[in-house]
Amino acid sequence: MPLEDGDPVKQRGQQVNGKVSSTPLLRGTGDPPLQGRPVPNDSRTGAMAESWELGTAPGDRDVTPGGALQRAGQEPGGCEEALMAELWELVQKVVKSSSWWERHGVDISILACSFLLLPAGFLCLRSAQAIPFLVGVLTLGVVHHTLTVKGSHLASHNALTESKSWGKVWAIFFIELCSAFTVEQATYNHVKIHHGYTNVIGMGDSSTWKLPFLNRYVYMFIAPLAVPIITPLVALDLLRNVEWKAALRTLCCMFLGLYCHYWLLLHVSGFQSPWSALLCMLLTRSLLAHPYIHVNIFQHIGLPMFAADRKPRRIHLMSLGVLNLPRNALLDWSFGHSLISCHVEHHLFPSLSDNMCLKIKPIVSQYLKQKKLPYNEDTYTSRLQLFLQRYEELMVHAPPITELVGIQ
């Protein structure tokens, strides 16, 4: 997996036609916890993660293939900045030539359609017949994940609107009211940490998704059912880290969202007991929890990991540490292209909407392959098999650091 001509990453396997066949040769290291870990230059990191930067933020130590830099005749980091600048210009041309409908309208329409499906879903649950009842469960499950995953993800990156004020409103609505989480901690952990330090050990390495005390089958197939219960509990615990006004707002929004769902099941769907309504809430809210957990680990864990002081600059970091899954109609609708088939594009340009990530995908993939940079792609089935076979190595042991050849 070359970084530049002649500067490969040590691997046990190979990347053929952009497909990941195995993981790099790695060197073990510790895995410090994310919670309570300070983020260096937090405001700078947040700005870096939320914008289309030309390279990593000033002050980051840049680890660059020495041979490539000598051939380019540039200062360390200049080659990567030039690559990112060139790619940025190509993407900017597409964005500027795109209409509002392409930039925001398509994704807003998907979210609006999901809202319009809510009444049909609740009414279908009134039926005593199995098929209409199951249609209601499926409808509410898909709608719930569209609002909580796609909506929350786009809102956290302010990709639904170009107004920061409206972006804050949508973030509160989708993240707190619909998802029962807190905006401040969701934005901090996802935008500033995960995007600012993608696959950096102890920070953006997706270690928060690991539960090493669970065996592979429990984690992959049973534990996801508990996501609707765990999410608000984790949110309540994280409220200790936010101001009291934000905590109070979050509590009110979380209660309102959960209670509205419960009330509608009792008074619109006609459930006769509180327990049956709560069980239906759990069923619909966990309908796509399995792919939700899987996608979050498939696209980063098992790929190269880096130390905070020994990491490539942005374009290499994202091309090495991010993976795209194939398009899937259900997951594209519910999770969005930026979380499924355009995850590489999303990490390079996080402020773009799902539809725009899909539109720039041919440009990004062609550019990275032309520059002989990795463009990781793999199938859902292949990643599932990989994690089941190597669960102990990938999900239990501390993530090892990738050793880049030619970098001292």
Give the helices and strands, then pairings.
Blueprint (H helix, E strand, L loop, with lengths): L1 E3 L2 E2 L6 E2 L2 E2 L5 E2 L14 H9 L15 H7 L5 H19 L3 H25 L5 H27 L7 H15 L4 H13 L20 H7 L4 H12 L5 H24 L6 H12 L3 H10 L15 H8 L1 E2 L4 H6 L8 H6 L5 H17 L5 E2 L2 H10 L1 H6 L4 E2 L6
Parallel strand pairs: 6-7
Antiparallel strand pairs: 1-2, 3-4, 5-8
Helix pairs in contact: 1-7, 3-16, 4-5, 5-6, 5-11, 6-10, 10-11
Keywords: Fatty acid biosynthesis, Fatty acid metabolism, Lipid biosynthesis, Lipid metabolism, Membrane, Transmembrane, Transmembrane helix
Pfam families: FA_desaturase (PF00487)
GO molecular function, one term: oxidoreductase activity, acting on paired donors, with oxidation of a pair of donors resulting in the reduction of molecular oxygen to two molecules of water
